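This is your field. Please look over both lines of this record.
***
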Amino acid sequence: EKEKEKKIITEEEKIEIEKSVRSRIINTVHFIGHLYCQSILSIEIVSLCVEDLFKESFEYGSEQDIMALCKLITIIGKKIDESEKLSLVMDEYIKKLKELENKKGLCQRLKFLILDTIEFRTIHNWVPRRKVEGPSKLEDVRKQAESRPPTLRLSASVQRTVRSDSQKSPNSGRR
């Protein structure tokens, strides 16, 4: 008789798997949202995703589904609100988010996440509180460096000396 070996998953492995799943879901939702914003996906497809996330969130109250839902609405919200016709759809989403926020047994962190999503539309009009910074252009970096006080900048001669010293081999000059 051969006994099948059952793999015992440690608590640490379980946490790692959950993080991986959560990350995949959030990244997928992020991708879907940006495809819609670039007009690659239609509103019908995105609406199906949102409705499915609402359904899962109401049925199971899963943390990752609620996080994904809020992320997706945050990404697509501004574009949806630009159209008067679609703005009514966003009104429905916000109404459902308010219902979800009042659901029993929801942890405070998720309630605040939902409230932040609602306020992002109602108070901030889809304008992020913090500027989202991407990669900088080389000329912008140079301008920032030039605008710093002289004590924070290395002089050109020091920079050349540092470069030339670092390019020399450790044994140069020794015999």
Remarks:
- DSSP finds seven helices and no strands in the chain.
- The chain has a mean pLDDT of 83.
